[in-house]
Design goal:
The protein has 283 residues and is of the alpha/beta class. It is 51% helix and 14% strand. The chain has helices at 15-27, 40-48, 59-63, 75-86, 103-109, 156-169, 178-202, 205-208, 213-218, 226-235, 237-258, 263-278, and strands at 5-11, 30-36, 54-56, 68-71, 94-97, 118-120, 122-124, 145-149, 172-176. It is elongated, with a radius of gyration of 21 Å. The two termini are 29 Å apart.
């Protein structure tokens, strides 16, 4: 099977960017994978770990021959990078990202990039609380879902190519609007991070000293990079506040059930949540 792209350039070689390069090379989706990083040290590690074929710290060198450029950087950097790099990209190339928020990014870039470059917003639902190129693994996306955002202004051919690209890497691809993405991801990713941070912060040091595995598993994502997540939470704050409101209403119902309510109310609440969780697929 021939490669989908002659050159894919990955901007940002952390956990996701590095893992993406490894996966692209493993699946032979590109003839050449180029990395763009701020430091030569990161590029050396990325080459040694098999994440890229070659790398550079120069933006023009990195993107001028690329068919596909993937922005794998924090969400607050994606828009300025996209505007800057798109001016250096060739006609017919595609620019995409892996950001955890989509509405503000897509809205900020729609109609504001050179016409010769198509932008497709994407978000692979994969990763971990770890960070950096040393945490990268080719298997990170295996069996995961990638959301591709589509609007009335999207180039259908570019959307189709990015969809095929992620289908071969992740397995499942879902198309939706940026706004729907942000609303849903607030519930299943952003809110759980908020709750994990809060739960750790609300637990006494004596209790933490004897925390069982269930507590550690429930709060694993609280080890995530605070600066990275602060940017994500700010960017999607409206949807997160809505999800947090729904959660707070459930907490009030739980409090009422515990505070002198009928025992059957508490059991009914727990049974309902259990039934929902039991049908979900564990990976």
């Amino acid at each position: 099977m021939s490669a989908m792209f002659k050159q894919v350039t990955i901007v940002g070689l952390g956990l996701i960017g590095g893992s993406l390069g490894m996966a692209i090379r493993r699946h032979r989706l590109a003839e050449r994978v180029v990395g763009l990083s701020r430091t030569e040290a990161t590029l050396r590690v990325a080459r040694r770990r098999g994440a890229i074929d070659t790398g550079t710290t120069d933006e023009q060198t990195a993107v001028r021959e690329a068919d596909l450029v993937v922005l794998a950087t924090p969400v607050d950097l994606i828009v300025p990078q996209a505007k800057r790099l798109s001016r250096l990209m060739r006609r017919g190339s595609i620019l995409t990202d892996v950001g955890s928020t989509k509405g503000s990014i897509v809205n900020a870039l729609t109609g504001r990039l050179p016409r010769r470059v198509a932008f497709v917003g994407a978000h692979p639902l994969a990763g971990s609380e770890q960070r950096g190129i040393m945490a990268a693994r080719a298997e990170v996306f295996q069996g995961s879902t990638c959301v591709i955002t589509k609007t009335a202004a999207s180039d259908p051919r570019a959307v189709a190519r990015v969809r095929t690209f992620w289908k071969r890497l992740a397995g499942q691809v879902v198309l939706m609007s940026p706004e729907r993405h942000d609303r849903l991801i607030a519930q299943v990713s952003h809110l759980p991070h908020v709750l994990a941070f809060c739960l750790v912060d609300a637990t006494s040091s004596d209790a933490l000293a004897m925390a069982p595995r269930s507590f550690l598993e429930a709060t694993r994502v609280a080890k995530s990079d605070p600066a990275l997540w602060a940017a994500i939470l700010r960017d999607n704050r409206a949807a997160i506040l809505q999800a947090l409101g729904a959660f707070e209403r459930r907490c009030r119902r739980m409090r009422q059930a515990l505070d002198g309510g009928p025992s059957r109310r508490l059991a009914r609440f727990l049974h309902h949540a259990q039934a929902i969780r039991c049908v979900l697929r564990d990976t």
